[in-house]
Amino acid sequence: METNSLKIMKTLSKLNACLLGLLTLVLLTACEEPQDPQPPNTDPPEQIISVGQAKEMFDSYSDRRVPIIKRFEEMEDTTQAFNPTRFGEYDYQTVKQYMDFIESEAALADVEIGGLRFYLTNYPASSTFSDGTEVQYPRQNSFVLVPTTAVNGVQKGFITRTTPDGGRTIVLIEDLVQEQQQNFRQQNGAKDTGLNTKGSDKGQLVTIVGAKPRLLFINPLSGAPAVMQEGGDDVSLLLNESNLRPPPPNPDTDFD
Predict the structure, then answer these.
(1) pTM score > 0.70 for this model?
(2) Is the Cβ–Cβ distance between 205 and 198 less than 8 Å?
(3) Which residues of the chain form beta strands (DSSP E)?
């Protein structure tokens, strides 16, 4: 039969073991690296410029381009004042959605996006495009974003086209435009063929309603030619429709 002294010693031994375990846990926790609740900042890209440089560029555009554009447009239409575009913007979620979308399409087509090309554009002096779509900002300058991929070592703008198995193949924009021009020359005019045409520095750009160009494309990864699948739908990867901002009566841009 255990004596009271022996029971007390066993109890103290268990208590010491518990205290030692608790102390060890506290020490290990204290030695852990503190967790930063915010993700770490990555290194900025080399293309980052200072606010001062951006201000100089903004002012140069104000002095060297805005008056010319304004004078030209007001000569074209003398009935109203014209305020040239100063910027366009997208909300951040739209930009993220666009990046996710083009990356998904590129993955389906098994190509890698090499860059984003910003084409400077101008809305037609019309209420509608040649396909009947409303022109949101007639005569205003704008821009179009085009993803590119490497083809024989050169970055080329592209869209994708669906395939019967649910995949994608790429369509080079320059090939699409050339095919449209070739179709126009072969058809010899829009009135007799039902073609949609619009003016271009290189002649007439043509869209055959409901038709798909039949082109030979090169897989930019393997270099092997691939005949396009017929019946696939083109998937545009070109982003536009930004919120354009001409200067208001009281300047309120970031650089004014």
Answers:
(1) no
(2) yes
(3) 87-89, 115-122, 141-151, 154-162, 168-172, 195-200, 203-208, 216-218, 225-227, 234-235, 243-245
Note down pLDDT in tens along the chain; length 256 residues: 456 565 555 555 655 555 555 666 555 555 555 666 677 778 888 999 999 999 999 999 999 999 999 999 999 999 999 999 999 889 999 999 999 999 999 999 999 999 999 999 999 999 999 889 999 899 999 999 999 999 999 999 999 999 998 899 999 999 988 888 888 788 765 444 333 333 333 333 333 333 333 333 333 333 333 333 344 788 888 888 778 876 555 567 888 8
Q: Which residues of 180-204 are buried (b: 16+ CB within 10 A; e: fewer)?
A: bbebbeeeeeeeeeebbbeeeeeeb
Could you count the other beta carbons within 10 Å of the beta carbon of residue 90?
15
Report domain extents, the chain: 53-84, 85-245
Instruction: Compute the distance between CA of residue 211 and CA of residue 193 in angstroms, rounded to an integer.
Output: 12
